[in-house]
Amino acid sequence: MTTQVLRTPWFSAGIGRTKSAPWGLHGGHPALSNQLRYRIAGQPVVPPTGKIDATMLSPGDYISIRSRGGGGYGDPLLRLVEGVRRDVL
After folding, report:
1. Measured between alpha carbons, how far is 28 from 5 in angstroms, rounded to an integer?
2. For residues 55 and 44, what is the distance between their CA atoms, to the nearest angstrom?
3. pLDDT single digits (tens) 18-52
4. What is the DSSP letter of 77?
5. Residue 38 burial class via C-beta count within 10 angstroms: exposed 0-12, middle 13-18, buried 19 and up
6. Among 10, 16, 50, 89, fewest CB within 10 Å belongs to which?
7. Domain ranges across the chain
8. What is residue 74's DSSP assignment?
9. How far is the C-alpha of 58 from the C-alpha of 30, rounded, in Å?
10. CB neighbours of 18 closer than 8 A, spacing ≥ 6?
C-alpha cells in the first residue's frame, strides 16, 4: 500500500519481520520480508528497523507499507501441476 500525504500529519509505525523473512515449513520457501518506506521532500527513507516514531510529513510525501505474508508449506516441486497452476494463474 502506498499513500500520498495530502495534509500535514504526524506518522508513527512499527512493523516486524523487516530483516528476517517468515520461514517456510517442511521444505516450503520463505516469504519476502516486510517493508516500510517513505519519501520526505523527494528523498527516499528506509528505516533500518521498520519503526518510525512521530515523524511529521508534508503534502506530497509518500508512505509505503508492504506486508508480505507467511512462508510456504511443503516442497513446491512435489505438488501436483494442476494445484500449482491454480495458485499461479
Report:
1. 38
2. 14
3. 888 899 999 999 999 999 888 888 888 888 888 88
4. G
5. buried
6. 89
7. 2-88
8. S
9. 36
10. 33, 34, 35, 36, 49, 50
DSSP string of 5-65, one letter each residue = --S--EEEEE-S-SSSPPPPBTTPPP-PPPEEEEEETTEEE--TTSEEEEEE--TT-EEEE
Amino acid at 2: T
The C-alpha R_g of the chain, in whole angstroms, comes to: 18
User: With 0-12 CB in 10 A as exposed, 13-18 as middle and 19+ as buried, what is 8?
Assistant: exposed
Among 49, 51, 67, residue whose Cα is nearest residue 14: 51
Against a cut of 0.70, is the pTM above it? Answer: no
CA–CA separation, 61 vs 7, rounded Å? 10
